[in-house]
Amino acid sequence: MFKWLAKILNGQTKNQAALSSGQQWKDESEIETRSLSKHIDQNREIIEEIFDHCDDLIIHEFVLGADKKAKAMLVYIDSLIKDDLLQTGLMQALLNIHHESVRESSLAWIRERVIPTGKVKEENRWVEVSEGICTSAVALFIDGQKTALLIELPEASNRPVSQPITQTSVTGPAEAFNEDLHTNMGLLRRRFPTSRLAVESMQIGLISKTPVNLVYLKGYVRNGLLDEVKERLNRIKVDSILCSGQIDEHLQDSAYSLFTGIDSTERPDRVASILLEGGVSLIIGGTPFALLLPTTLATHMTASDDYDYRYWYASFIRLIRWSALFVAALAPALYVALISFHQELIPPSLLVTVVSNREGVPFPAFLEALLMELSFETLREAGVRLPRTFGQTISIVGTIVIGQAAVSAGLVSSGMVVVVALTAIASYTIPSIKLSNAIRILRFFFMFAGAVLGLFGIMAAVSLLSFHLCSLRTFGIPYLSPLAPLSLGDLKDTFVRVPHWMMQNRPRLTGYAELDRQDPALKPGPPHGKTDRRKGKI
Amino acid sequence: MLDKGRISSVQLLFLLLIAELATAFLYVPAITSKAAGPDGWLSLLIPATIYASAVAAACVALGKRFPERVFTEYLPEVIGRIPGKLLAAIYTGVLIHITSVMVIEGAQFIQSNFLTETPVLALQLVLVIVAVYGSYLGIEVIARHNELVFPIFILSLSILIVLVAKDIKLHNFLPVLENGVVPVLKGAMVPGVWRGEVFVILWLYPYLNRKEEAYQAAFGMVLLATVLVTTVVAVTVGVFGDLYTSRLVYPVNVLARYISVANILERLELFIVIIWVAGVIVKLAIFFHTAGIAAASTLGLKNYRGMLLPVAIAAMIVGNMFYGSYVQVVDFLSQVWPYYGSTIELLIPAMLLLIAVIRKKGVSGPAKKKS
Fold first, then answer.
1. What is the pLDDT at residue A30?
2. Which one of A87, A363, A461, B122 has the minimum C-beta count within 10 Å?
3. Hey, is the C-beta of B212 within 8 angstroms of any chain A C-beta?
4. Which CATH class is domain B9-358?
């Protein structure tokens, strides 16, 4: 029995042993270690294999020289290369070669005489070539040459990248997606300069022909997820897609739920972290918001700062954020329940204050709470809709009229204002807008339950919600994992964030295609002589 | 198979545990101390455990012979078509009956603690709606929900025990075995049958993903429940003495009211007790699921979900007809339930196991691993 329990508790850590045996924990694919071939067609095949599923790779074939006999091709990634430079500079130079037989002349000749930039390298191994392509270089292959020229061009920046507006962070990178798909792909490509980053582009919408890029890391994502996402995307038959939320609703598992298993973000670093956990992202043209899937409740509650701060503080703010989630959902409901049913639970001194505050308030607690919450939500919506210049007006009207005047007019009690303010602040700590919107609605449901049946009503409502959440799945992943079903190993990145050197595995459910994140023996520390654990590993 | 869900052995263990603990805490201390006096903890520790282990052994052994079907499905195969269907129908009735008792137990508990002026029927209705929603979503969802509820449940219980531990008076347990063994055995009857509710494994076994761990889950439940319930009863008797405990309506609840740490941590009882309500809801969901499955399999339906509404309505009607007041419930629990319970939990399953072995029905030997 105890063995059995121990087995269950340790189930997560088994595969670590296999790794620590000194073998390199990640190696290049076999194909990348090869050298280039002499024949351009073979090279093309290999390139297509390395960049399998990378739809933003461009292979441009043409012929060189006056006799038009030398076949050549330029290979580059669309989103990384500035088009006009390529066209006016490089292509023109190449096509202007009037040398009779380019085929026989060496690449060095081209390099010296033709290429209009000095940032050129000559490589003959696929590793370097594919790496170069992924870091904004154009690769030039010429038939009959065993090497390729990597010509580095200035990076493309079609639109200036701005700061994130909705998901700000203190220490994280301050760049956000914008409406231009090209720029967005460039932002991602620069984070993963590797052929592993797969990009499959498609168009959705009969009229709008919205470009949608399905982005994932090859080998990290499980096949079932990918197939399912593609199938659901293919099922979307609409005439137009104007925003990411539209695709979100078409892809859901549970069509009627308040909660969504697909988060949206405007931060490239967040997309990157989801991809690293074995997720998939949809970058949609015309909107700065990328979709992330599958997102569980725990993913909704993570912010990119969590991984940047030191783990003690990161865990601390995580815990604060989780408690804020409960406060945001339950605080007004608890207040109403305590005031109307369970006054005995409030300590006497506090009760006196609360009651004297409520003296003269004409409404029952529930109505009071409802009024305040609704007016807060109205205020919030007004704040979003108002032109920037009127922002001041709203804050003055909001604080003075609804805050102070309502209390002094005896319409609401000051205790209620405190609770509503606390709830409002708590709801803004939730990193995901979609989750925080769901909580906003739920708050009213809980308030109603608390007003009708007190604490028991709240408990019944919470149970109802919990049953619902437990039944939710997003692309096969239970929405509440790793809490229910419990997966102890994955709790390392849920309520707390353990040090990075301890994050051995990806989340088990999303990342099982490639579970190991890093070398198992990464614990930092000074050298310890003979027993130095850093020796002998990798 | 009526429900396509799969649960792990730990989830099963938690389900079985909460199925006993959620209501046992409310009634067992008073009933046991009435019968066994200061030796109540002994009743819980030894005879009740032996009985519950027998139930667990019989039920799992029976389940193992029919790994992919629930009890009411294979009954006709074991004892013949007509008697089998008849017994299945009786079991469905029994499950509805005991579920109705649980609903009324929960509702009365809530009424006396939270909402003294709300009619029991309204509370029953809310409880039943939430629980039936859970069982509608399937056993997998109940199991996951329970993974959230159970740790908090145990936590609240531990907080309670730790905070009142300083008030335990050892002389409340003396003299040990003053009247011999008979009161201890009598005191074990109710809690024993309560722990024997492990027999719902007859309906949960098919959903277990690794069948070979069924014994661990069942016996684990019996052992852990022994530890927990014995501790709670011992603490209650230790604080209040057996006489006072036996006269209280919900002794553990009064115990929670007893918490006072430095005059600041007071009046916590509702927050502790409200978590037990969550446990009661899970328990109800399990039993509604079981009763729904039993009803559907008896009638030969393909889906149990349609049976949940009739089962729920029947349970509410039965509960209100027979157990209108707390006294009636306790009377049933202490006078009828031991004999009634032991028949359905141990006697009939054990006889069926015997018949199945003799008639060579089902799979014998170790359960085959599911492919």
1. 66
2. A87
3. no
4. mainly alpha
